Amino acid sequence: MSWIKKNALWWALGGAVVMAIVIWGTWQGVHYTSTTEFCLSCHSMRTSGDEYKTSVHFRNASGVRAECKDCHIPPGVVPTLMRKTEALNDLYHTFISPSIDSPEKFNAKRAELAQREWARMSANNSAACKSCHSYEAMDHGKQSANAAAQMTAAAAKDSNCIDCHKGIAHHKPDMSSGFRDRYKQLQQQAEKLSTATTLFSLSEKTLTATAGAPAGKALLFPATQVKVLQKEGSNVQLEVTGWRESKGRGRVLTQYMGKRIFSAVLDASLLENVKVLQTQTDPGSHQEWQQVSVTAWTSAQGLIDSIIPVWEYSDQMLQSTCSACHSTPPATRYTANGWIAGLKAMSTYYRLNPVEERTLLKYLQTHASDVSEPNK
């Protein structure tokens, strides 16, 4: 016991030295495993590494390179250690159960990996991005007019960088599989005609004056409410109610007076079936509108008894389409008519077929800032 007391100082000094070596070694390990060389040495990182090397973060006019850690490890000792602890999961997926060790496997999980990383960045308000890019240090006079307008608004709100800057260093994933799978499920549900008399169109449908007649130019637009009058074989007779401008040929029916939310477009064969229900003047444009109903025939498939699944599918389409580039805008950002130009402005950035685009537009218009009906 006396020997221990006499050497207590040496024990303390030895313990301190060992602790310092452990701390130093641990931090050196953290530093080494955070280098780009280490990250890209893994076979599973080949795909993402090749993409990174073609990005502006790897090579640019100023010669300033953003390394892997600059984006994927938030600043600060505690956040760094927490992120490193989370990354231990990568060892399992590298050595025990490889999940992204080929380009095919990586692309299959690209959307999942991207969403996980976007969520991490969103949780800390893009702290890693802002450790290099500071709103206060930006000279908006050296930015393009559009960039200056966007960044000025972002700076005022201290916006999350990842909301608008996805795909900077790696290719953006295709987010369409989820909502398209959902649409296939709805199609299967709509193969058999519901017994309900009020139904909603799932997609575009041709309209004819008589059952089984050759299709013309008349169309029923997606997400339009109809009333079933009778069924004849594989066809049904519907009544569509909507609004049209009093002036003109009256072939386009909209869901509301004065709002370009399209319900149907008629051809000459259906104009004889139109009944005028009432006439009103739109207070906004001072134009005269007629509320009308028209009877027409179409196939029995593709009609669903509730609009809610259609809107859920549309919202999933919105989330998947917009989140690949920026945060999802609320439907109330624009008026019903304003969404026509708003969505068109983004058309070069998403990949939707014409029917999907019309469905999405109708969802946004029906939930726009100037539409307040409870069953929209």
Question: How would you describe this protein?
Answer:
Helices cover 42% and strands 16% of the residues. The chain has helices at 2-6, 8-32, 36-40, 46-53, 68-72, 77-86, 89-96, 103-123, 127-130, 145-157, 176-189, 268-271, 308-322, 338-345, 354-366; strands at 198-201, 205-206, 219-220, 225-232, 235-245, 252-256, 259-265, 274-281, 288-299, 303-304. The chain is elongated and about 105 Å long.
Tell me the fraction of residues in β-strands, as a range: 15-25%
Question: Roughly how much helix do the residues carry, as a percent range?
Answer: 40-55%
Order of strands across the main sheet: 8-9-5-4-1-10
Distance between the termini: 84 Å
The assigned structural class equals alpha+beta
**Number of continuous helical runs:** 15
Give the low-confidence spans: none
Q: Label the overall shape.
A: elongated
Largest sheet: 6 strands, antiparallel
Number of strands: 10
- Round the mean pLDDT to the nearest integer and report it: 87
Output the helix-strand order: HHHHHHHHHHHEEEEEEEHEEEHHH
As a whole number of angstroms, the C-alpha radius of gyration is 30 Å
